[in-house]
Specification:
By secondary structure, the chain is an alpha/beta fold. The chain has two domains: about 30 residues, no CATH class; about 80 residues, 3-Layer(aba) Sandwich (Rossmann fold). The longest helix has 17 residues. It is elongated. The relative contact order is 0.13.
Length: about 120
């Protein structure tokens, strides 16, 4: 195997299977395409909580099945981040500082609906 090839190219190259701790790994182009589709199907999640330990715990819990696109610590930042990041799901603390969580959720949902109608 040519050591100058990028890792992904070396894995996809049928003529040069890579060795791993588990043995030989062969990935054809069709399998790689299925993996890429699976990764893109993960929901994009925005976390909103003013306790960093809670953000860390929830992030670890969701990271295997979701793409964590960001985290914020207050309602005002939630509104800005939701509009900028366009997450599929927002996980939020009920009592965020600055803008109450329920109000922030209503505003985020309204802005998302406006964007979907355009």
């Amino acid at each position: 195997m040519d050591q100058s090839k990028p890792l992904l190219e070396a894995i996809v190259d049928d003529d040069a299977p890579s060795r791993t701790a588990l043995g030989r790994l062969r990935v054809d182009h069709e399998s790689l395409a299925r993996m890429e589709v699976r990764l893109s199907l993960r929901p994009r999640v925005l976390l909103a909580d003013d306790y960093p330990d809670m953000v860390k715990a929830v992030s670890r819990l969701l990271a295997l099945d979701c793409e964590i696109v960001g985290s914020v610590a207050d309602g005002g930042a939630l509104l800005e981040a939701a509009q900028r990041l366009q997450p599929d799901v927002i996980v939020l603390d009920v009592n965020l500082p600055n803008v109450h969580s329920l109000e922030a959720a209503r505003e985020s949902a309204g802005k998302t609906a406006d964007l979907a109608q355009r």
